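Summary of Year 1 activities. Much of the first year was spent building the evaluation harness for sequence design. The harness presents a backbone, in tokenized form, and records the residue chosen at every position. We chose the following record to illustrate the format because it has been used consistently in internal testing since the harness was completed.
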């Protein structure tokens, strides 16, 4: 399984915002510096996140972005969907009339990858930003 940089960075940036004061906007510049993500790339990502109501932008000198909802309400699958990414295991396409190996039949492991994809997508549908914050807090207190 491979997630695109866009998906991973979107989750990282939103977790960054969620870990700060919920009422105070966070600038993309600050996220860029803390998470080592290109500012230009963050601008592209946040344009999509804003369009899909994951974040709200606040204008002004102390402006930036805030989450539209509580971190526990934002599913990771919603973030992936907002940035136009889908978790896909292999090149096999369920809806294809033609086989995934270029022949008239599906590859021998096709149904295995389909099942794995369902499990992974279900996992991301059950996980939210709040879960990431809890896990990070638990990890910090254990060390």
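For this record, the design step produced the sequence shown next.
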């Amino acid at each position: 399984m491979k997630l695109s940089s866009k998906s991973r960075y979107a989750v990282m940036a939103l977790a960054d915002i969620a870990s700060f004061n919920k009422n105070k906007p966070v600038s993309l510049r600050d996220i860029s510096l803390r998470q080592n993500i290109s500012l230009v790339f963050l601008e592209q990502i946040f344009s999509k996140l804003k369009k899909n109501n994951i974040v709200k932008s606040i204008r002004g000198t102390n402006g930036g972005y805030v989450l539209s909802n509580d971190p526990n309400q934002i599913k990771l699958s919603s973030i992936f969907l907002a940035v136009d990414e889908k978790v896909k295991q292999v090149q096999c396409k369920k809806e294809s009339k033609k086989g995934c190996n270029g022949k008239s039949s599906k590859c021998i492991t096709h149904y295995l990858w389909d099942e794995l994809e369902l499990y992974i997508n279900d996992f991301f549908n059950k996980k939210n930003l709040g879960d990431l914050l809890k896990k990070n807090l638990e990890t910090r207190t254990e060390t």
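Residues 110-126 form the longest helix (17 residues). Quantitative recovery figures across the full test set are reported in Table 2.
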